[in-house]
Amino acid sequence: MAIAVIPALLRKFTDGKERITARGRNVRELIADLDRQFPGIAQHLLEGDDLKPSVAVSVDGEIGPGGAMEPVGDESEVHFLPAIGGGVEK
Amino acid sequence: MEATTSNGKFKVIGTRPIRHDGIDKVIGRAKYGADYAFPGMLFGKVLRSPHAHARIKSIKTDKALKLPGVKAVVTAADLPEAANRLEQAGEMAINPHYLSMNILARDKVLYDGHAIAAVAATSPHIAEEALKLIEVDYEVLEPAMTVDAAMKPGAPILLPDLRNREEGDKQTNVAQHYQFKRGDVEAGFRAADYVVEREFNTAMVHQGYIEPHNAVGIYNADGQATIYCSTQGAFDVRSLSAQVLGVPVGKIKVVPAEIGGGFGGKTTIYLEPLSVLLSKKTGHPVKLVMTRSEVLRASGPTSGSKIKVKMGATRDGKIVAAQVWMAYEAGAFPGSPVGAGAMTILAPYTIENLQIDAYDVVVNRPKTAAYRAPGASNAAMASETVIDELAEKCGIDPLDLRIQNGVKEGSPQVVGPPFRRIGFIETCEAIKNSDHYKSPLSGPYRGRGVASGFWFNAGMQSSATVNIHTDGTASVVTGSPDIGGSRASMAMITAEVLGLPVTDVRPLVADTDSIGHTDVTGGSRVTFATGMAVYEAAQDAARQLRERAAKVWEVKPEDVELHDGVLSLKEKAEGKAPMTIKEMATKLARTGGPIIGRASVNARGVGPAFATTCVDVEVDPDTGKVQILRCTIAQDVGKAIHPSYVEGQMQGGTAQGIGWGLNEEYFYDQKGILRNTGLLDYRMPTCLDLPLIETILVEVPNPGHPLGVRGVGEVSIVPPPAALANAIYRAVGVRMTETPMSPPRLLKAILKKRAAEETQSAAAD
């Protein structure tokens, strides 16, 4: 199982937990598993079937250009990071 | 200045050939954006807001349209609404909705210089006259010019619909809050023997590229448009313009002109959609060129900021805790580089307990754009002076403190993932062992300072083709506008792979219809990512050359090798003498036709950059003027493809960092009007202000690139402001916490210190 490292401001959705074990062959599946464990977190990471433009992902230390399609290994460490710059009017 | 690089196993890489585009630039033949002219071309000018914050009650264009020679006027009413979502464009994310509102104001103007309308006329002078005839009725509003003013309760609201995740449905100027946390910060501070806490303010500064923004738009009756412009990213101009104009991307072709500097500032658009819109309305090509005043008032500078840093260390120099609060001016629309600032501010150090809170704040200033390592120089000004103070309290050499706490392979980044092979410690050691650092500095009011910096560097998408010509020479085509000598580097990589002289390879930068998608020239990514595409395209061409030689010799391709531009059999055979590429090129038609090597990448394996800078200064205690006596930068450059251009990047970034640290600032009056709108008053350093900047190339190859390349373009701008502040402290004993450390500001600090000393002395008497 991979380890998902949750950004500080999203830990309120994971009972304050920073590192969570989750299953998935790619980032999208991993987020789906996170959402099963902590309902609601996916909406802060995904937009449609890809990562939100304000979110970047690092798998095993490499920023993944594949976004939600980035492959995840059994022992991968996945970090969600802010993409640089931003702002969206509600 | 001595180059410390060697080309080792390489024949071409690591040498210093003359740039292929050099002659055209030296003799003035190179074509920049403003040089383009077409039959029937009209000239455009932009009406800009005289207010920092105002509601537009009405715009009347009738009188302007009646002026002889005026062919069209456009306002925001001519633009469709663009999508309200973030898109990555280079190092900064861009929201097309705000981008469109920046290109032509809707119901409000949000900064002095905000574009309101554009005119096309038969001459620039008529267009200027027409601007005076456009009647705009404003309701002037109170501006919020700083993060303090914009964040305080009851602040004037710039964007009534802006919300953030934490404040619910409350109107706000805070667009975003980022937070990074690790360990137990309170426990960390309890374990510290020394704690330093300081508050910093840095001024908004501009990239200062010499060539103003420009665009020529040509709209054809068939709905196709072509834009000629100075840009760091032709594909970004295409996609952003398409969104602002509400047309499909495929309807626009962008031809990148030569570029007279960008430094991040030309990764977005201002005039480009206006040129197309005016061309569509008039049926003529339309050219717009900004004046210097427009560049300063209305293009994207980088953020001013307020940063609070608290850091604690044990007596033996281990940094045990750090807490940071930072707020960056985004300008009129969200999207400052504060996220990057937060991720870079403590990046050079392993700190177990940290918390960083970062805020993106809209203010009544021009929307910020990227500027060389966006957000990192402000951040380092704060953290690297606090590090210096901690070193002093611990009684440890500031470089040794950095080495002791510095990140290395496997150290966690602020955002979590561990670093791969990096060369931060090596840059500190290079400065420590440099002639500069070993040379004593003596004399009154003189001081030496050091500081370090980090930048991520970027990968992203690039395409390349390598064409083998019938005479055995080659051309390499990419979509990366050349702003720092990248044509030469692309030619050198091609020459290295094929074994050709670099003069036999012609590098070209293509338009958006002539090469595959290529992301922006920014993020120090071109030699890394486009270089990777070029390397693979050249390998593809080499593979095809081996296949053709195999056909000639009637052997298997795997029996053929290409070495130093010569094709030969791995095992010699009678009657099958080796062939040069030139000889093989004459047989291409008979063996299958032309050879085009091609490759595209979405590059992985990015290698981040670190730099450490040492500067000696002398301060005039009566005026506060700082004279730089000597300056040396050591930077981990991975493998330097063309060492001269790497050194040029290091020197250029250092010069800009010095300007940022000592003199440059946007100066607004009480009403929010920019008062220094020319380069006489916006004080960038000249050659008279700078010594020769010495460079030490630390080559720690990036394992993620086939040639060891890591980006080199940005990190050099990060350390100088802090290094200067630390040097000034040693020269005159004052800790500067504001940039620029200009004569009036420094003199005030010196006088304050002197007065405090006199008061203390009088009290002692």
Your description of this structure?
The complex is a heterodimer of chains A (90) and B (765). Chain A has 90 residues and is α+β, with helices and mostly antiparallel strands. Chain A has one domain: Ubiquitin-like (UB roll). Helix content of chain A is 12%, strand content 28%. Chain A is built from 1 helix and 7 strands, in the order ββαβββββ. In chain A, the strands form 2 sheets. In chain A, strands 2-1-7-5-6 form a 5-stranded mixed β-sheet, covered by helices on one side. The longest helix of chain A is centred in the middle third of the chain and has 11 residues, at 27-37. The radius of gyration of chain A is 12 Å and the shape is globular. Mean pLDDT of chain A is 88; it is low at 85-90. With 765 residues, chain B is of the alpha+beta class. Among the domains of chain B are: 424-451 and 608-754, Aldehyde oxidase/xanthine dehydrogenase, molybdopterin binding domain (Aldehyde Oxidoreductase, domain 4, 2-Layer Sandwich), CATH 3.30.365; 460-603, 2-Layer Sandwich (Aldehyde Oxidoreductase, domain 4). Chain B contains 21 helices and 29 strands. In chain B, the strands form 7 sheets. In chain B, strands 3-7-1-14-11-12-13 form a 7-stranded mixed β-sheet, with helices on both faces. A 6-stranded mixed β-sheet of chain B has the order 9-17-16-15-10-29. A 4-stranded mixed β-sheet of chain B has the order 18-26-27-28, with helices on both faces. In chain B, a hairpin with a 5-residue loop joins β15 (305-313) and β16. In chain B, α10 packs parallel to α11 (376-394) and α19 (643-662) crosses α20 (720-732). In chain B, 59% of the residues are buried. Classes of the chains: A alpha+beta (90), B alpha+beta (765). At the A-B interface, β6 and β7 of A face β5, β9 and α10 of B.
